[in-house]
Amino acid sequence: MEAGRQVFTVDLLERYAAKGHGVITCMAAGNDVIVLGTSKGWVIRHDFGVGHSSDIDLSAGVGRPGEQSIHSVFVDPGGCHCIATVVGNGGADTFYMHAKWTKPRILNKMKGLVVNTVAWNRQQITEASTREVILGTDNGQLHEIAVDEKDKREKYIKFLFELAELPEAFKDLQMETASTSNGTRYYVMAVTPTRLYSFTGIGLLEAVFASYTDRAVHFMELPGDIPNSELHFFIKQRRAIHFAWLSGAGIYHGGLNFGAQHSSPNGDQNFVENKALLDYSKLIEGSGATKPSSLAVSEYHFLLLIGNKVKVVNRISEQIVEELHFDQTSEAASKGILGLCSDASAGLFYTYDQNSIFQVSVNDEGRDMWKVYLDLKVYAQALANCRDPFQRDQVYLEQAEVAFSAKDFVRAASFYAKINYILSFEEITLKFISIGEQDSLRTFLLRKLDNLDKDDKCQITMISTWTTELYLDKINRLLLEDDTTTESRSQEYQSIVKEFRAFLSDSKDVLDEATTMKLLESYGRVDELVYFANLKEQYEIVIHHYIQQGEAKKALEVLQKPSVPVDLQYKFAPELIMLDAYETVESWMITKNLNPRKLIPAMMRYSSEPHAKNETHEVIKYLEYCVHRLQNEDAGAHNLLLSLYAKQEDESSLLRFLQCKFGKGRPNGADFFYDPKYALRLCLKEKRMRACVHIYSMMSMHEEAVALALQVDPELAMAEADKVEDDEDLRKKLWLMVAKHVVEQEKGTKRENIRKAIAFLKETDGLLKIEDILPFFPDFALIDDFKEAICSSLEDYNQQIEKLKEEMNDATHGADNIRNDISALAQRYTVIERDEECGVCRRKILTAGGDHQVRGYSSVGPMAPFYVFPCGHAFHAQCLIAHVTRCTDRTQAELILELQKQLTLLGNEPKENINGGLTRNETITSMITPLDKIRSQLDDAVASECPYCGDLMIREISLPFILPEEALEVASWEIKPQNIVGQKSLYL
């Protein structure tokens, strides 16, 4: 331990702690509470947490005050429960005290038994209840007690166990519990002057110890001579971590694992690990020197009371690191320091003499443990205890130096890579360069990359580039060695190449692209160059390499990646389709958003090459896919497909293409997308006459189509002539062209030719007559040859004349019927009852109605104008107009209002000679005529159907009960207070 940096310090806590009640005989501590026992039977409690102290005379409780001495005192980790044993001439008595009690309670069942040790149940103890507590006595017995503070007495005292083989006093006890699926498991350790016993089991304590009647007790025996045998657990977060037994042979210590599954030979679960014995000879000079009289355990140290000094021994290195001296009074110095005790809850240690209490404080005892473990070469624990990077660097440096000295250079490189401060990067690399260890240097650089911070981009790039060159050098050396053909060398070569590719993949984002590619190229590593280019998404290089190697399929696989620009598809299309047309076209067909127009140069290059007759034309396959499946409308693609069809000997594909309507199923879809003029020129050039006929027809050049069709096939010409349906004259002209051709082409006897011509006329469905084709026959033809045809024609004319006469007679009868209906309509009437009411205002229809006069209507005597419907409903004219206007749609309502306005204006004009030279009667007639017309329009608008029986009533179902224009009127209604009993005025 460095000077001036003491971990353990001693301070006087209380000079006269016994308060005049004799001298201190024993002490216990827990949770900043110290309990003292004195030689006169007093128990003194110092609660330093609240600054309070109290004392209790236990000797008075047995009737002999002043004659009893406190043999032992114990306090729980929480500082609430206390057990003390008084020993005197009258025997021994044991008391229980609670922090809230003013009087102790004697444990009668323990009378006569000297209690040397107490084990508390740290995991389950509370302020109100002790739960299970084990007492160890001077006669080798173990007892269980439990006390609840509210009961003011013990709940029970049970006998648990007694040593039979070697009866000795129990000197110290410790207990730990753990919860399992089967219940609570108890772990108990007890020591006598020569043995350490361990007990364990699941269930009640009584059952656990009862099980040892049938099995042997596990113990460790260390004979020797020591003033006091002690057992201590180090507690961290309420759990025991390790233990120490102060025995005659030394300090027996080890770790505690209360969840271990391995078992000891006798069947007990062994929860002790990493056992060791610290021999006193390492701590005490001379064979007759005094052995420790007391022990305390911290996380990393043992505190040993030897004489009047406390020696601090490191538990790991077993070296004395400090000695603590005490400032005692002259009276107490002769007796020396009596003992040590620890407060696990507060993390403090105490020592005491006859009068005083001393506090031993711990100040960061683990700060130098990394160095302790490092000296012992326990590197993992050393690293776990390092506090800063410089300490870790020293651990890594020592590990690296040890491995370097042992010529384990790869392992040394891994440790050197973790050093950041105490050794520079250049020094480490020179170590490996100087001995020619390229592989170890590469390992160092790789590990260094793993340990560098991501912000050190420049350093990462430089190291990664250097590592790349080292990999390439290693690969090159393996290739140059003579035994590269051997299996081992081949495996090593394949392994290093695989490792190098993995490195390139991991470092693709930090390596400089241009520099790395130059390195790969300079070493001739084409495969790795392509691999790296693929990683950096330099797909052009990758594809170009595969094309050079003739591997079209691999190049197409690269092009299929989503991240590859579509422009590369167009750039490499000419080379790929020439290399492997089938795979290229298949790739195009599964690629989305590909523009066939940009692939035309590649397809034309492929089409210009000669192909076998039976070979599938891949370009035609792709263009058919675009045109029919993708419904591509690009004229270039359609023109190219048409040109390829035209070059085929079989004209059927070309005709099917020309006859296909590509826009079918789409609104306003075009019938074709190719250039018809280009198609016509191409078909004429390739002598595809049927296709030319179709194109002429499609371009509405029917005369040219028929003329060309007559050169190919008269049947085709007839079909073309029949296509014209909307122009009768043109259709007749086309059929005359066909007829002329037929007449002129017929050869044989005259009568046979005439017979064939007459048969042709029947195919025209009456469009041509015999008189139409007579001019095509020679002048010397005899009329007798046409007699039959002429008679047939005259009979047709006669039938048409008779049919027209019948149609004229039917029209005449229809006109007479209409006149009769009009006359009957003027005589139609309806009977109105005297008490008939208006369907809107509910007033009588036939009563005088001055309020119901309507402009433009003349009253019938004193009655107002009204409407009567066949269904029986009647309405005043004004009421019907108002009702229909309100219920109909806005457009109809505006029309009704406009008609009413016009009627009003015409009805107000004077009926006098205002038309110049017209007479009065003529003037009146000219004014009535437009008035009647407007009145008729108004009648049609409002009275076309009954408003209660027609569509208007049906539409009213969806209307609100209160119209928007009526909402303000309803809101103004007032409900009078007298109409609402017991309510205040309510206004809507």
From TrEMBL:
Q: Would you say which domain of life the source belongs to?
A: Eukaryota
Residue ranges annotated as coiled coil are 787-821
Q: Any idea where the Pep3/Vps18 beta-propeller domain is?
A: 18-362
Which compartments does it reside in? Endomembrane system
**Natural source organism:** Heracleum sosnowskyi
| Name this polypeptide is given | Vacuolar protein sorting-associated protein 18-like
Quote one Gene Ontology molecular function term.
Answer: zinc ion binding
- UniProt similarity note: Belongs to the VPS18 family.
Q: Which PROSITE patterns match?
A: CHCR
Q: Where is the Pep3/Vps18 RING C-terminal domain?
A: 866-955
Instruction: Fetch the CDD domains from UniProt.
Output: RING-H2_Pep3p-like
The way it spans or sits in the membrane comes to: Peripheral membrane protein
**GO cellular component terms, A-Z:** endosome; HOPS complex
GO terms (BP aspect): endosome organization; intracellular protein transport; organelle fusion; vacuole organization; vesicle docking involved in exocytosis
Record PANTHER family: VACUOLAR PROTEIN SORTING-ASSOCIATED PROTEIN (PTHR23323), VACUOLAR PROTEIN SORTING-ASSOCIATED PROTEIN 18 HOMOLOG (PTHR23323:SF26)
> What keywords tag this UniProt record?
Coiled coil, Membrane, Metal-binding, Zinc, Zinc-finger
Instruction: Show me the CHCR repeat boundaries.
Output: 590-751
InterPro entries, per the entry: Clathrin_H-chain/VPS_repeat, Pep3/Vps18_beta-prop, Pep3/Vps18_RING_C, Znf_RING/FYVE/PHD
Pfam families annotated for this entry? Pep3_Vps18, VPS18_RING_C
